[in-house]
C-alpha cells in the first residue's frame, strides 16, 4: 500500500464501520472418530480445545496491534454427519451439547459444521443428523447447522428438500417462545462452499487441511461512502465508473482482511486459507448493504432496477477482491439477509421488497433467501417449494444459493419478529401459500443434474 491507500484504509476503520467480521478456524475432526459415544465426545472436545485454545487471545492481540476490530471468532469443523455417522439422533444431540460447551470453553461465538451433504442421497449418519437438528439447535446457543441438498453436479434431492422443510418447522416449534430462533442457525444449501468463514453455513470441507484460518471481511458502509463521495464530487459518473470505484474499494478491504488473517495464522502456526470478502451487514445504522442501493440512485432496495444494481455490486466486489488477493474464497459477494440489515428489514416492512423480488435477486448475489421471517402457518409443502426454487437457481447457474427461512410460530404477515444480537429483527413477510399441499414436491426423488454438469 502507498501512503494515500494507508490513510484511506484508516479512515474506513475510524469512520465507515470497516472491520474483520470473522476469523474462523477450521479444524479437521476425522481422527476423532469412535464407535463409543463417550470417547467420541471426549476426542472432539480435546481436539478443538487444543487447537483453538489461543484463537481468541491471538485475534484480540492482532486486532489491537493494527487497530482493526475482529468482531467474531469462530470455528468450523468436519461435517458431523460424517464423523458421527455411527450414532443415533439422540446421541448427536449430546454431541452438539459437547460442541457448545467446548465453544464456551475457548471463548468463540459459533461453531459451524453440524452439517450433512445429501445432494445425491441420504446415508444413515445424514438421516440421524437431520433428525437431531431441531433439538440440537434448541438446546445450544453456539451451534450452527447446514445441509447441502443440491449441486450442479448431482441435481436436487427432493426427498432431502421435503425432509428439511419438516425439520425447519419442528425447529421453529421448539423455539416458539423465541420467534423460531433455532431456524436462524440453520441453512439449506445448493453448492455449499467448503471454506466459508460466515455462519450459519460454515463447515470444514473434506478436501480442506488439518487446520486452517479463513477470514471474512466486510465493508458495506465503506462501499456506500465511497460511492457517495464520488457522486458528490462528480454527479455525472456513469455506472461503469461507479463500478470501478466499488472495485477499488473492495480491493482495499480485501488487503486489510488478508493482512489480519495471515498474521493470526502465522502466530498460531496454522495454514492461512481464504479471504471471503462478502459484504455482510449488521442491524446497525451505517453498516447496511441496502443503503448501497440508495447511493446508486434507487428509492429503496426492492424497486425495479434492484437486480441490475446488485449484479453490478456483486461483480465489482469480486473483481476487486480477486485483484487484491490470490486467496479469495467462501462466498465473496453481497449478502442480503433481511433481518440482519436494518435498511433491508425496513424495505420489507414498507412493502418495497417482497420474497419474489428477493428470489430474483439471488440469481446474481452470493446467497439466497436469507434470514426471512415468514408466517408460522406456512405449510411444509409451501416451505419445501420455496427451498426447491432457490436450490434450482443455484444448480442451473452453477453458484451457491441457500435458504435461512424462519416460520415464526403463532405470528402472521405484518407481525414483528425479534431474534437478538447480529441476527436482528424483521417484519414477517407474506408467503404465497395457495399450494399448501404441493404434490409436486411430494413426488420426491432427485431432479437430475442439468446439462451444465457435463464439464469433463
Kindly describe this structure.
With 456 residues, the protein is α/β, with parallel strands linked by helices. The protein has one domain (1-335): Alpha-Beta Barrel (Anaerobic Ribonucleotide-triphosphate Reductase Large Chain), CATH 3.20.70.20. The protein contains 15 helices and 13 strands. The chain has helices spanning 3-15, 37-52, 55-66, 80-83, 89-106, 124-138, 158-174, 220-233, 239-268, 290-295, 306-324, 342-349, 355-361, 380-396, 439-442, and strands at residues 19-27, 70-77, 110-117, 143-151, 155-157, 186-190, 211-218, 271-276, 369-375, 401-408, 416-418, 425-427, 446-447. The strands form 2 sheets. Strands 1, 2, 3, 4, 5, 6, 7, 8, 9, 10 and 13 form an 11-stranded mixed beta sheet that branches. The longest helix is centred in the middle third of the chain and has 30 residues, at 239-268. The radius of gyration is 21 Å and the shape is globular.
Q: What's the end-to-end separation, in Å? A: 41 Å
**How many domain regions?**
1
The fraction of residues in strands falls at: 15-25%
- Give average pLDDT, whole number: 89
Structural class: alpha/beta
Pick out its properties.
456 residues; globular; Anaerobic Ribonucleotide-triphosphate Reductase Large Chain; alpha/beta; 17% strand; eleven-stranded mixed β-sheet; 15 helices; two-stranded antiparallel sheet
Amino acid at each position: 500500500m502507498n501512503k494515500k491507500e494507508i490513510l484511506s484504509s484508516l479512515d474506513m476503520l475510524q469512520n465507515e464501520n470497516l472491520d474483520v467480521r470473522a476469523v474462523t478456524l477450521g479444524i479437521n475432526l476425522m481422527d476423532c472418530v469412535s464407535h463409543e459415544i463417550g470417547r467420541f465426545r471426549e476426542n472432539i472436545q480435546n481436539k478443538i480445545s487444543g487447537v483453538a485454545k489461543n484463537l481468541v487471545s491471538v485475534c484480540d492481540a492482532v486486532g489491537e496491534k493494527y487497530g482493526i476490530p475482529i468482531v467474531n471468532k469462530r470455528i468450523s469443523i468436519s461435517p458431523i454427519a460424517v464423523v458421527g455417522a455411527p450414532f443415533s439422533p439422540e446421541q448427536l444431540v449430546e454431541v452438539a451439547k459437547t460442541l457448545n460447551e467446548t465453544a464456551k470453553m475457548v471463548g468463540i461465538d459459533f461453531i459451524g459444521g453440524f452439517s450433512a451433504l445429501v445432494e445425491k442421497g441420504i446415508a444413515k449418519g445424514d438421516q440421524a443428523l437431520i433428525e437431531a437438528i431441531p433439538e440440537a439447535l434448541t438446546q445450544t446457543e453456539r451451534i450452527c447447522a447446514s445441509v447441502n441438498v443440491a449441486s450442479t453436479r448431482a441435481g436436487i434431492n427432493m426427498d432431502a428438500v421435503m425432509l428439511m422443510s419438516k425439520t425447519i418447522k419442528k425447529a421453529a416449534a421448539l423455539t416458539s417462545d423465541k420467534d423460531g430462533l433455532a431456524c436462524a442457525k440453520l441453512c439449506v444449501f445448493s453448492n455449499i462452499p467448503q471454506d466459508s468463514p460466515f455462519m450459519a453455513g460454515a463447515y470444514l470441507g473434506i478436501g480442506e487441511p488439518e487446520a486452517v484460518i479463513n477470514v471474512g471481511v466486510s465493508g458495506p458502509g465503506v462501499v456506500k461512502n465511497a460511492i457517495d463521495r464520488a457522486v458528490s464530487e462528480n454527479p455525472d459518473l456513469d455506472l461503469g465508473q461507479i463500478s470501478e470505484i466499488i472495485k477499488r474499494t473492495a480491493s482495499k478491504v480485501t488487503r486489510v482482511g488478508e493482512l489480519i488473517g495471515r498474521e493470526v495464522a502465522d502466530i498460531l502456526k496454522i495454514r492461512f486459507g481464504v479471504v471471503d470478502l462478502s459484504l455482510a451487514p449488521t442491524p446497525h445504522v451505517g453498516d447496511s448493504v441496502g443503503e448501497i442501493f440508495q447511493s446508486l440512485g434507487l428509492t429503496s432496495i426492492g424497486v425495479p432496477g434492484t437486480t441490475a444494481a446488485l449484479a453490478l455490486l456483486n461483480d465489482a466486489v469480486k473483481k476487486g477482491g480477486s485483484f487484491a488477493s490470490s486467496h479469495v474464497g467462501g462466498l465473496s459477494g453481497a449478502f442480503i439477509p433481511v433481518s440482519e440489515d436494518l435498511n433491508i428489514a425496513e424495505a420489507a416492512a414498507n412493502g418495497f421488497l417482497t420474497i419474489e423480488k428477493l428470489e430474483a435477486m439471488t440469481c446474481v448475489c452470493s446467497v439466497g433467501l436469507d434470514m426471512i421471517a415468514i408466517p408460522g402457518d406456512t405449510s411444509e409443502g409451501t416451505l419445501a417449494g420455496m427451498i426447491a426454487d432457490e436450490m434450482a437457481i443455484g444448480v442451473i447457474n452453477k453458484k451457491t444459493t441457500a435458504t435461512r427461512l424462519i416460520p415464526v410460530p403463532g405470528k402472521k404477515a405484518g407481525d414483528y419478529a425479534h431474534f437478538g444480537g447480529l441476527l436482528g429483527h424483521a417484519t414477517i413477510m407474506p408467503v404465497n401459500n395457495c399450494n399448501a399441499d404441493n404434490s409436486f414436491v411430494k413426488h420426491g426423488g432427485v431432479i437430475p443434474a442439468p446439462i451444465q454438469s457435463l464439464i469433463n
